[in-house]
Amino acid sequence: MDRTLLGLVLHPTRDASEVIAIIADWAARHGKSLAVRTEDRHRVPPNVESYPTDELVKRASALISIGGDGTMLGALRSTVGNPKPVLGVHLGRLGFLVEVEPPELPEALDRLTHKNFTVEAHGCLACDVCGDDVVAFNDIALIRRPGTGVAIATLAVDGQRYGYYRCDALVVSTPTGSTAYSYAAGGPLVSPATQAVVVTPSAPMAGISRSVVLSPEEKVRLELTPESGPVAVEVDGRVFREATSEGAIDITYRREAGLVVRLDPRRYQERNQLKLSLMDLPLLPEQLRELLPRNFREHLNRRELSPPR
């Protein structure tokens, strides 16, 4: 493209005005253009362009996701079929995908526009949910409705049936999503450097009771049985279908469907290891410090190095 157009993807409800102001100021000083999705037009300055999501992805050189992991996942889903680099700016709490804190933005934007970064490719689950196509970068889940029975579904891999699940929920995840719902259901942590599909039942009562880890080449089919209660279908934590008591979900793994910008892959990996430790293990004070924003860490370091008064 002849000009650099950066697309902004905003958290649907959280106030992102401070981050937008930082980006708008940087863009004005560097002669770059900004755009948002049409539905976010009222949340940005008048000189920011707006387009429908598909057109925004088509025109943008890169996307900037402002929010947490949920916002980042939405940005990645919008680029399936036309992958563009996505930079995550942190407004959430415990994010595994986002990397940049607001004070780090000017330097990050300089590097983004000068292509001084690495790209981390993420696979997704391409799903046919009872005839509707949908993609998930974290997971797709069948979840029972309270008071209406349990989820009962058969599992088939490459057309061969292997057994059935009788459980509260059934979660199919990517390696990226292994730290989310699948992990909470007792599933394994899978390195993001690998490619796999993980099927994990939550609160299993009968049938298959352990996680199943499959290769990215294997096709998964989950089919509700006539005895199943109605289930909701969630995609990356968002309700895709309120309730269904029949039908099947066909799932295939799609490689390199999303591109995540990494400015400091080693530091990002270390921070994620510490975030994972928060789930199970107590942390040392110096480890907790690494989770703080960089400017706050530097402030603490300066205070500790200052001579006592």
From TrEMBL:
GO cellular component entries: cytoplasm
Coiled coil location: none
Subcellular location: Cytoplasm
Keywords: ATP-binding, Cytoplasm, Kinase, NAD, NADP, Nucleotide-binding, Transferase
UniProt cross-references to InterPro entries, sorted A to Z: ATP-NAD_kinase_N, ATP-NAD_kinase_PpnK-typ_C, NAD/diacylglycerol_kinase_sf, NADK
Catalytic residues, chain numbering: D69 (proton acceptor)
GO molecular function, one term: NAD binding
Biological process per Gene Ontology, one example term: NAD+ metabolic process
Catalysis: reaction(s): NAD(+) + ATP = ADP + NADP(+) + H(+)
Major location (coarse): cytoplasm
Protein name: NAD kinase
Binding site for NAD(+): D69, G70, N138, D139, R166, D168, A203
Family statement drawn from the similarity comment of this UniProt entry: Belongs to the NAD kinase family.
Any Pfam family matching the protein: NAD_kinase_C
Record function comment: Involved in the regulation of the intracellular balance of NAD and NADP, and is a key enzyme in the biosynthesis of NADP. Catalyzes specifically the phosphorylation on 2'-hydroxyl of the adenosine moiety of NAD to yield NADP.
Cofactor: a divalent metal cation
Enzyme Commission identifier(s): 2.7.1.23
First-level EC class: transferase
